[in-house]
From TrEMBL:
Keyword Transport assigned: no
Species: Acetobacter pasteurianus subsp. pasteurianus
Gene Ontology molecular function: DNA binding
Protein name in the entry: Transcriptional regulator
Keywords recorded for this protein, A-Z: DNA-binding, Plasmid, Transcription, Transcription regulation
Superkingdom, taxonomy of origin: Bacteria
Keyword set includes Calcium: no
């Protein structure tokens, strides 16, 4: 039977791995690479202005403008919502009806 690690040993092992990754001596188990998205194209397909798009989906108008002008990139949660708006707009609409 394999020996079970206690939580302290697991944390110590994880910290050692993190240090190794930071130092470049250990490769991370996985790396998340965010998919490229074009916020302007997504918004234009909705037929909404930047201000109305922002208001409808809970973004700030400044964020939408900055994303479209490539001054900022959406964070993970916003990127996920944008991809849903692009791929499954009816699902997003169904959820927002109750809001």
């Amino acid at each position: 039977m394999a020996e079970q690690m206690n939580i302290a040993d697991e944390l110590l092992t994880s910290m050692e791995q993190a240090v190794g990754i930071a130092e470049g001596t250990v490769k991370p188990g996985r790396i998340w690479t965010p998919p490229e998205i074009n916020v302007a194209d997504i918004r234009k397909r909705t037929g909404l202005s930047q201000v109305r798009f922002a208001a409808r989906y809970g973004f700030s108008a400044a964020a939408v403008r900055d994303w479209e002008q490539k001054r900022r990139t959406p964070e993970k949660a916003a990127r996920t919502l944008l991809m849903l708006i692009d791929k499954e707009p009816q699902a997003v609409e169904r959820v927002l009806v109750g809001v």
